[in-house]
Design brief:
This protein is α+β, with helices and mostly antiparallel strands. It has two helices and three strands; from the N terminus they run H-E-H-E-E. The protein has helices at 2-19, 36-46; strands at residues 25-31, 47-53, 64-72. It has a three-stranded antiparallel β-sheet. The chain is globular and about 35 Å long. The termini are far apart.
């Protein structure tokens, strides 16, 4: 269920904002859907480098991707 998965990703993002030290990194499994673009935009504002990858093992029709954010800067 993509809306629930996006809610969990937003919770993880908020947790990271509270717990990460400057220069920290975060890896999240996210799903394309409502809220995805906004999450990426916010992540790019708070991290120096953001990479989005779809694993080769993932089914082509699956909306799953991984977001790796490095260099926390807030």
């Amino acid at each position: 269920d993509i809306p629930r998965a996006m809610y969990l990703a937003e919770l993880a993002f908020d947790f990271g904002n509270k717990m990460l030290k400057p220069g920290g990194a975060m890896l999240m499994k996210v799903f394309h859907g409502a809220g995805f673009d906004e999450l990426i935009r916010l992540t790019r504002l708070q991290f120096d480098r953001v990479v989005i990858r779809k694993p080769l093992a993932s089914r082509s029709r699956s909306r799953e991707t991984y977001l790796l954010a490095k260099g926390y800067n807030l």
